[in-house]
Design brief:
Rossmann fold; DNA-binding; homodimer; 6-stranded parallel beta sheet
Chain lengths: ~325, ~325
DNA sequence: CTGAAAGCGCTTACAG
DNA sequence: CTGAAAGCGCTTACAG
């Protein structure tokens, strides 16, 4: 049922080579011949099989994407950005899941090598997966880390987390907050937090465990602002503080990270630092395609700017009653 | 750099055919020869290129998955289920996005046809995409709808939404609720809602717009239960009713659908009807592989049971003050 | 047990 | 402008 070049050629009494050229609009083929060929091909919904072509060109026009097995909606948009970038350049996306368990991950890597994906994107949460990446690099297949910890041999695209950290503290500082509880989870964000703090003359009280937030906050009336490492974390803090009688539009201001759907929920209306999720994916594809074009080039590292999404949990600092 | 059968054969002074057989553990090859071959192959991380093989076998060992462009976390788990099912059978997943916009979707379909995916899974929200499906069916490639509206030519796996509708109303009925506000969005769920209502002698008040919930609820003190079409919808209702002074652990009971992360958030603790998300994906793959094995078979249709996840918003009916 | 050869669907020099 | 042929990496009868 599948239609091949050979079948088209036989039906039209031309050679296979001619059909091949005609379908790629080669000027070598006479206008008349080409028309006949293209017409027949379209009428049969002819789609070229990539097998034969790939065997020649040594490229599959497939980009592999490896995700952590987390099921966060963050990756949906990242993936969609990658997908749109790939498709617009004629590439398809092959999907796999990556964990530290080699038994789980390696078969998927092997599968991608069998399909001879042209490049690999590792979407990650800061972990280093060079062990897997090397199986591709050894074969000169470019690897791009997307939001992971960049290594020497691989290109990368990340959110500028230093800037992200700055934005959060800066926003609070500009609203008059002088003492801020601040999640210390990722070193680059924390660096940004500190930079903004010293620039604005603001004091940071770090925490690494969300259970510590309530006692720290309740114990110090100078603390009026809170910076969290995620929207989920921020919403939990809001929940806890509300239930202890604090108002999130008066007693404290709070800032999340990521702008996931929970942040815009009317129950929270959380001010947050957003990442360019779709752009992370499409930029990763962009870098991969560049590397494919210029195989000699050194790995590229690109940073995307995060931005503040202001909602109702950012308010002027106010002395609290308790 | 990529290692081929030919290269292995030359290094060992055997023929290509022998290497090919040895790597597939054929008993035709002498134990000693096989060992030498396998050792060399492993030492070079030889991975067979699928191009040559696919050209012979006419199958790519690739399953296509088409998702709607919604970015709901629902699809993350579905996809992961599909991925695990596929990998465990030696198949890879090729990803694409499907909308009603043919300009957007058709290039992705063409790409999948070029890669000659062996089967297609359409993960959908009840929409019918037969126009696209037919491009595969015409080529005898099985198509499986995953949570979409099943059509004649395609297999399908869906959540049993009639049962889902029943579970929600039944749960409220068993807690003594006699009059229930009920979202009327999907016909099968509504059928389930009605079936349970008549079985338990409960009265249903349908709504099709969430803005109608507050006035309906406030205007009728007999209404104590609410059934929503999603967790998101339920959380919005909770938000609204709370702000009008109603307590979600006393004045009303409310049930969502899907068990997404917002349902388990401490701020909501929503009782909800959960779908077997991962199973939807892995079952879709399972059906696709069955169809591949038995090409003559009629399309299969499978239903997965949803189940109730009880949290804090399901409580005994209580006469409200206002 | 092993090798030589044909062929899967394509592309690409090379003739004519 | 068109055709015949080689070759990409593999598998699979067929000889020996």
């Amino acid at each position: 049922m599948t239609c091949t070049l050979k079948q088209l050629a036989e039906q039209l009494n031309v050679s296979i080579g001619t059909v091949s050229l005609a379908l790629r609009n080669s000027p070598l083929v006479a206008e008349k011949t080409r028309k006949r060929i293209i017409e027949l091909a379209e009428s049969q919904d002819y789609v070229q099989s990539s097998f034969g072509r790939a065997l020649q060109s040594r490229c599959s026009k497939l980009i592999g994407v490896l995700l952590p097995t987390l099921t966060s909606s963050f990756f949906n948009e990242l993936l969609q950005g990658a997908g749109e970038g790939a498709v617009s350049s004629g590439y398809g996306l092959m999907l796999g899941w990556i964990t530290e368990d080699k038994e789980y991950t390696n078969p998927q890597i092997t599968l991608m090598l069998e399909k001879e994906i042209d490049a690999l994107i590792i979407a990650s949460h800061g972990k280093n997966f060079d062990f897997y990446a090397n199986r591709f690099i050894r074969r000169n297949k470019p690897v791009v880390y997307c939001n992971g910890s960049p290594s020497e041999n691989c290109s990368s695209v990340c959110t500028d987390d230093v800037l992200g950290g700055k934005l959060a503290v800066q926003a609070l500082a500009e609203y008059g907050h002088k003492k801020i509880l601040c999640a210390q989870y990722y070193s680059s964000r924390w660096a940004g937090n500190q930079a903004a703090a010293s620039q604005y003359g603001v004091q940071l009280v770090p925490f690494t465990d969300y259970n510590a937030v309530l006692p720290l906050f309740a114990g110090d009336r100078d603390i009026t602002g809170i910076v969290c490492h995620s929207d989920e974390g921020a919403s939990l803090v809001m929940h806890t503080l509300r239930h202890h009688g604090y108002s999130d539009t008066g007693d404290f201001s709070i800032i999340g990270y990521n702008d996931l759907s929970i942040a815009s929920h009317p129950e929270f209306q959380l001010t947050t630092v957003a990442q360019q999720r779709k752009n992370l994916g499409s930029t990763a594809v962009e870098i991969a395609l560049e590397q494919l074009k210029n195989p000699g080039n050194h790995p590229t590292h690109r940073l995307l700017d995060p931005f503040l999404v202001k909602r109702q949990t950012l308010n002027p600092a106010r002395r609290r009653k308790k």
